[in-house]
Model the fold of this input.
Amino acid sequence: MVQVFVQPAYGTADARRYGARSLERTVAFRELADLLDPADLARLDDLHPGGRARFWGAKDKYDRRMDTVTTGDVVLFTGRKHVQATAEVGHGFRNPAFARRLWRPDPGKCLFSNVYSLRRYRRVELPYEAVWALPGFNAGDNFMGLRFLDEAKSAAVLGLLSSAA
Done:
């Protein structure tokens, strides 16, 4: 089954700045090829033949969970009391240097070490209330931090997204 996970990406000023660089527009990843392992570059080229993709990431404390993410998994990008966007995971890899150059965090700011490309990114601006109404979710949950949904919640969210498309 497709794994669904939630990632805040539109709440804080830093997240919005990173999103402006790699969610709201595509990135010419070949310009960063000197930082990529040849196998990662080949996989990105295969999934994104135009040489451009959207990207997001996760901190190193999530390494073990991010190791379970595969092509086709679905991510919900949250912030400002909405699921702001959804996407399908393309290729995931661990590369802090790539992340640093891509997002250019301020000194001392926490940095992503896990990076993943995105396919089928779309803005949805779905209010949290629509998700809270699904079985297993709690009203008032502001979806803070990276969170992986169980199978039942994943199925419910995927159903909601397909009906909203």
Summary: The first strand starts at residue 4 and ends at 8. The radius of gyration is 15 Å.
